[in-house]
């Protein structure tokens, strides 16, 4: 495995600013550096699209060219046009905002609410723990997209409501990770020591337990953005998304579905955009996990 | 035996909780079913009459109690939109969905286990990296995009398989592949970790030192231990597959439970939505119950 990391030492890349772990202890097949730089680059690009789409888009997203309907990719329209004659490249650039906004906001909602529930369950005593975790079991027994469909449809189509639906659906997974981490930390000796010297319960939680939950939660949250984007895209594909003149990727894809035989680019390219973003975020999450969790990996490898 | 009873009681509680939760979501959130059933341009009188007929004007508590009462008698209510008994409707649509999910489950297990094991055995070599890259792609793709690609290749270009509809076996191939491959990606990653963990155990070194062939070490000892935790994942898989089925059914225009959910949710046909959620929760909880129980049988250490 060292051969892999050794082979690809590049002087400067996006990951270089992160402090290095001694690689000899990391015996997981560590991702080569370009593999970390690539997703960071993709995410940065998409963020740029989301923040200032006007700078990058060659056309206006509302420009409909009646003479250029469903045109194949060409010099004029890099990625072709849709059924209204809108430039697909432009639409994809404008669609980035929807996906990223949804991913980020849904994760903040789910992560904060789930984290709080997990923290309370992990520290609040047996009865509280049991009630909360049973509630989470119930929540999880309805598959996530199904529950998201019910919530999104009941609330009505809007960006906020989609975020709410996706965020609410993902609460239990954060709660579970948080609770597990809190319980694991709670019984460690430094927490016990702090309690013995007379720290108040609240300060024990805030100063000693909470900081130890941050790295697994950070990994969860990163991977959660990817997952939230996928659920959101599914909702939009099913027809529960927002329909306006700046369609998101899932909606574009569902429109393109009707033209599979005549316009391959229309359905495939929005899907490619979603996949590229989600792959990048997942890679970042995996890299983060490997970096933040070297002890766990080391222990596993030594086979104790 | 006590363990068995406790688990079954717990499962029943979760199903009950899930239906109650969805009931509350549906009735609390805005949107009046009577207005939707009446259609656009209906007079206030018509709406009032429909509301009285559906019983949606009564207090929430009253509606909830009568819902539970009916449920206890095996009556899931009648559809607001078509007046058809919900149980009848679900029964007719359950088979296509079960065909799809169970076949996809088989595909997921076969592909997932094979890829995970091959990847683990070749750990750190190019084959492992290639498989891992493929798995990352599968877990990051929206399932509907994979479905679109499959349709483009096998239905539109090669014309080997029908793209949409249901009835024949050929029409099942693409949806099953779509749903199964996505789930296989998640499964394979966990299989890989599990196998690697066991491969690093000291007993494997002992077996090798004893002179057993690599093949016999792998098949007779490692897999047997590594696949036990993987059984747990089948429970998670059940949820994934049901979620995926909703999207897959929409994409491939198939009959099924997911399809009626999407239709019912649009017109706030609450009894049908309730029925589908109940179906999903029962399916999910049942699979997880089986998984838990099989664990007791497979792994004798888990005698509680």
Word description of this protein:
The complex is a heterodimer of chains A (304) and B (304). With 304 residues, chain A is an all-alpha fold. Chain A is built from twelve helices and no strands. The radius of gyration of chain A is 23 Å and the shape is elongated. In chain A, 43% of the residues are buried. Chain B has helices at residues 2-28, 33-38, 44-54, 60-72, 86-121, 126-140, 143-157, 170-199, 202-209, 214-251, 257-266, 270-298. Chain B has 304 residues and is an all-alpha fold. Chain B is globular, with a radius of gyration of 24 Å. The model of chain B has no long low-confidence stretch (mean pLDDT 84). Chains A and B meet through helix 5, helix 6, helix 9, helix 10 and helix 11 of A and helix 1, helix 6, helix 7, helix 10 and helix 11 of B.
What is the gist of this entry?
The complex is a heterodimer of chains A (304) and B (304). Chain A is mostly helical.
Helical amount of chain B: over 70%
The sequence of SSEs of chain A as H and E is HHHHHHHHHHHH
Which structural class is indicated by helix and strand composition of chain B? mainly alpha
The amount of beta strand of chain A, in percent, is under 5%
Mean pLDDT across every amino acid position of chain B: 84
> If helices are DSSP runs of H or I spanning 4 or more residues, what is the number of helices of chain A?
12
What multimeric state do the chains show? Answer: heterodimer
CA-atom Rg of chain B in angstroms: 24 Å
What characterizes the major β-sheet of chain A? Answer: none
Give the CA-CA distance, first to last residue of chain A. 21 Å
Q: State the end-to-end CA separation of chain B.
A: 10 Å
Low-confidence stretches of chain B: none
**In DSSP terms, counting alpha (H) and pi (I) runs of 4 or more, how many helices of chain B?**
12
User: On the 0-100 scale, what is the average pLDDT of chain A?
Assistant: 81
* Shape, principal axes of CA atoms of chain A: elongated
Low-confidence stretches of chain A: 1-28, 296-304
């Amino acid at each position: 495995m060292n051969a892999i990391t050794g082979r690809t030492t590049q002087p400067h890349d996006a990951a270089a600013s992160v402090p290095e772990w001694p690689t000899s202890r990391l015996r997981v097949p560590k991702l080569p550096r370009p593999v970390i730089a690539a997703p960071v680059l993709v995410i940065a690009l998409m963020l740029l699209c989301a923040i200032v789409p006007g700078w990058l888009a060659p056309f206006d997203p509302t420009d409909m060219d009646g003479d250029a309907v469903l045109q194949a990719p060409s010099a004029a329209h890099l990625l072709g046009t849709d059924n209204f004659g809108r430039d697909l490249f432009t639409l994809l650039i404008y669609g980035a905002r929807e996906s990223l906004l949804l991913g980020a906001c849904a994760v903040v909602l789910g992560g904060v609410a789930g984290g709080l529930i997990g923290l309370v369950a992990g520290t609040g005593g047996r009865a509280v723990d049991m009630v909360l975790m049973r509630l989470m079991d119930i929540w999880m027994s309805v598959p996530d997209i199904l529950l998201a469909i019910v919530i999104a449809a009941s609330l009505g189509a809007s960006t906020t409501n989609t975020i709410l639906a996706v965020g609410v659906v993902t609460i239990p997974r954060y709660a579970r990770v948080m609770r597990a981490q809190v319980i694991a930390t709670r019984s460690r000796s430094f927490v016990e020591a702090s309690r013995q010297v007379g720290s108040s319960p609240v300060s024990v939680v805030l100063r000693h337990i909470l900081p130890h939950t941050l790295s697994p939660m950070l990994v969860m949250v990163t991977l959660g953005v990817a997952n939230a984007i996928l659920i959101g895209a599914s909702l939009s594909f099913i027809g529960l998304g927002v329909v306006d003149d700046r369609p998101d990727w899932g909606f574009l894809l569902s429109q393109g579905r009707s033209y599979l035989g005549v316009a391959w680019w229309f359905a495939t390219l929005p899907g490619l955009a979603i996949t590229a973003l989600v792959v990048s975020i997942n890679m970042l999450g995996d890299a983060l996990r490997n970096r933040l969790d070297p002890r766990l990996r080391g222990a596993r490898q030594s086979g104790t | 035996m006590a363990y068995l009873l406790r688990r079954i009681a717990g499962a029943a509680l979760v199903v009950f909780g899930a239906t109650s939760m969805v009931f509350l979501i549906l009735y609390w959130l805005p949107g009046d079913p009577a207005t939707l059933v009446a259609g656009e341009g209906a007079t206030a009188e018509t709406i009032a009459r429909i509301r009285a007929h559906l019983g949606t004007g009564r207090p929430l508590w009253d509606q909830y109690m009568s819902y539970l009462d009916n449920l206890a008698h095996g009556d899931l209510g009648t559809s607001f939109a078509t007046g058809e008994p919900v149980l009848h409707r679900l029964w007719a649509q359950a088979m296509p969905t079960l065909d799809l999910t169970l076949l996809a489950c088989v595909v997921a297990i076969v592909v997932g286990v094979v890829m995970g094991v091959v990847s683990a055995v070749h750990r750190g070599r190019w084959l492992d990296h290639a498989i891992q890259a493929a798995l990352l792609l599968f877990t990051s793709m929206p399932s509907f995009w994979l479905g679109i690609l499959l349709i483009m290749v096998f239905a539109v270009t090669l014309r080997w398989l029908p793209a949409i509809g249901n009835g024949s076996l050929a029409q099942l191939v693409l949806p099953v592949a779509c749903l199964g491959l996505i789930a296989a990606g998640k499964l394979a990653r966990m299989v890989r970790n599990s196998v690697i963990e066991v491969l690093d155990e000291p007993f494997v070194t002992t077996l090798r030192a004893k002179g057993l062939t690599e093949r016999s070490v792998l098949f007779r000892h490692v897999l047997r231990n590594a696949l036990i935790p993987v059984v747990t994942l089948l429970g998670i898989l059940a949820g994934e597959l049901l979620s995926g089925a909703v999207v897959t059914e929409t994409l491939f225009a198939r009959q099924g439970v997911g399809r009626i959910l999407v239709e019912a949710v649009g017109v706030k046909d609450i009894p049908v939505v309730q029925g589908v959620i109940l179906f999903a929760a029962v399916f999910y909880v049942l699979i997880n119950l089986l998984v838990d129980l099989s664990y007791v049988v497979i792994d004798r250490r888990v005698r509680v």
